[in-house]
Design brief:
The chain is built from 7 helices and 18 strands. By secondary structure, the chain is an alpha/beta fold. Strand 10 and strand 11 form a beta hairpin. The chain starts with a strand and ends in a 10-residue tail after the last helix.
């Protein structure tokens, strides 16, 4: 089996985990493909005969059967965008902090790899959202699109419509449009709901709205949610999965819906989304028990 490993070579914990993975790969007779920068950050890697180094991440993804992302959810998101068109299944090893997407812990890495080799896993499909502009630009987000104020302390005014019908004119710090996958990210921290993956919806969440009656809204993702910048002379920052861009001045209207693109996250037998929520959000935990 050929594995591709994606990680940030400047992240010490991720590099250390990559070294452990290479040792396991040699033990399990797996072939590993990695970026040359990872090899330079891990000198002992050049001693592994089953390691192939490439000049960029897209090249190594094309050579693999399974992608292993090492880091946190940020690394998973970057990997998802790199592999969006190849649709290779993705295994997330968490060497970061919370890690809703990268939910395999380092101590469970060998067990996870053995299960992948034996085919004892399921695929957890996560759809991208797609944002199209009037000027022809198209952007994709696995987590969320964010419209926020840029270079000002003033609130912004944004109009939201769904399938041609007016929802609301928001006066706020901005708006989040999240997928079910992104419901546990920025959306959650702003008071939005958690949505079960594979649910064909998107969540519209205002950021610090001026009125307390403006609440998050869950919408079917099969039709267009349209965000309009009105008036058009506002400075709006548009971002997708943490990548910031200035909103095109000639396209103050954005149409968002579920994309045909997706990634398949590898889930191990016995794992469930609710178990991840309990562990990451400490549901049911009583901190007094440790005192």
């Amino acid at each position: 089996m050929h594995l591709a490993i994606i990680l940030n070579p400047a992240n010490f914990m991720a590099i250390q985990t990559a070294g452990d993975l290479l040792s396991l790969a040699q033990k399990l007779q797996l072939t590993v493909h990695a970026n040359r920068k990872v090899g330079n950050a891990l000198p002992e890697a050049f001693g592994f005969k089953n390691l192939h180094l490439h000049d960029n991440d897209r090249q190594l993804i094309e050579q693999c059967e399974v992608i292993v992302s090492i880091g946190g959810d940020g690394t998973i998101l970057r990997t998802a965008h790199l592999s969006r068109e190849t649709r290779r299944p993705l295994l997330g090893i968490n060497s970061g902090k919370l890690g809703f997407l990268a939910n395999i812990q380092q101590q469970d890495m060998e067990q996870a790899l053995r299960k992948v080799i034996e085919g004892r896993f399921h695929l957890d499909r996560r759809q991208f959202l797609e944002a199209s502009f009037n000027n022809g630009e198209i952007h994709y987000a696995l987590n969320e699109f964010v419209f926020s104020r840029k270079g000002t302390v003033s609130m912004v005014t944004l109009t939201a419509e769904y399938d041609g019908a007016l929802i609301n004119r928001y006066w706020a710090d901005g708006i989040i449009v999240s997928s079910p996958t992104g419901s546990t990210a920025y959306n959650l921290s702003t008071g939005g709901p958690i949505v079960l993956p594979q649910t064909n919806v998107m969540v519209l969440t205002p950021i610090s709205p001026h009125t307390l009656t403006s609440r998050p809204l869950v919408l079917p993702s099969c039709k267009d949610l349209t965000i309009k910048v009105e008036p058009i002379d506002q400075e709006i920052l548009f971002s997708f999965d943490g990548s910031n861009h200035a909103l095109p001045e000639d396209s103050p209207v954005v149409h968002i819906r579920q994309s045909e693109h997706y990634i398949d996250l590898i889930g191990l037998t016995g794992q469930s989304y609710f178990e991840t929520l309990r562990n990451k959000l400490m549901w049911g935990a009583d901190v007094r028990e440790k005192k």
